[in-house]
């Protein structure tokens, strides 16, 4: 699974970090109007999710 959050969206970044996702750097997304937006990018594999959320 992968997630992105805007560079200035610190609240979302903290929540994603707390959920156990690994920061993978930054990416640039192209909006439908052709403008771009830089975002922080995270990933979490199925195995990582299972390890963190065992009952």
Contiguous helical run count: 2
Q: What would you report as the Rg, rounded to the nearest angstrom?
A: 13 Å
* Biggest sheet features: 3 strands, antiparallel
What string gives the helices and strands in order?
EHEEH
In terms of DSSP E residues, the strand content is 35-45%
Low-confidence segments, given as residue ranges, are: none
Number of strands: 3
Can you offer a commentary on this structure?
The chain is of the alpha+beta class and 55 residues long. The chain is 29% helix and 40% strand. It is built from two helices and three strands, in the order βαββα. It has a three-stranded antiparallel β-sheet with strand order 1-3-2, with helices on one face.
Which terms would index this structure?
3 strands; 55 residues; 3-stranded antiparallel sheet; alpha+beta
């Amino acid at each position: 699974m992968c997630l992105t959050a805007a560079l200035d969206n610190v609240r979302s970044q903290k929540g994603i970090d707390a959920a156990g996702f690994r920061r993978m750097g930054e990416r640039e997304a192209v909006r439908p109007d052709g403008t771009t937006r830089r975002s922080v990018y995270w990933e979490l594999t199925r195995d990582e999710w299972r390890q963190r959320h065992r009952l």
